[in-house]
Amino acid sequence: MGAGIPGILILTDQPELFKQYRGFVVLRVKNPEEGHMGQVAAALEYCKSTSQMILPGHLGGLSSDVMNRLINESLSRPAHIIYAATFEKEYPTCAVVNRGILPSVKLAIEEKRYDLLELYKTLDHRVVRFADQSLFE
């Protein structure tokens, strides 16, 4: 993928559903009740590179254009978190996140604060706006 961003991780509480995806790393989410916060923690704990792209499984129609734009934005104007949004909605699970946020993510989990977007807004973040809402449906 991009500089400092490794391949794709699939994070799930049902890894058996993803056995057919060769070339992808499939990780079992330890505590599904932690939601997206737990998924980001798992990705950053597994990943040893500077940053990790995370993508939501329920937005299967995401194009490579969206992914490339997030990666390019992370390279051209770095921030610890760069996530996608439209003018109607924000998508904190469609993001490039820096490994440096892992302590904040772990603390939020320890304190049972599972709102990923709320955490992002307290950290060094940037929003990448997309005009077309249909890219995320």
What topology emerges from the helices and strands here?
Elements: E1 9-12, E2 25-28, H1 35-46, E3 51-54, H2 64-76, E4 81-85, E5 90-98, H3 102-110, H4 116-120, E6 125-129
Parallel strand pairs: 1-2, 4-6
Antiparallel strand pairs: 3-5, 4-5
Helix pairs in contact: 1-3
Instruction: Provide the CATH top-level class.
Output: Alpha Beta
Could you tell me the CATH topology label. Answer: Spore Coat Polysaccharide Biosynthesis Protein SpsA, Chain A
Uncertain residue ranges: none
**Could you describe the largest sheet, including whether it forms a barrel?**
4 strands, mixed
> How many individual β-strands?
6
Structural class comes to: alpha/beta
Radius of gyration: 14 Å
Overall number of structural domains: 1
The total of helices stands at 4
Order of helices and strands: EEHEHEEHHE
Query: Order of strands side by side in the largest beta sheet?
Result: 3-5-4-6
Beta-strand content bin: 15-25%
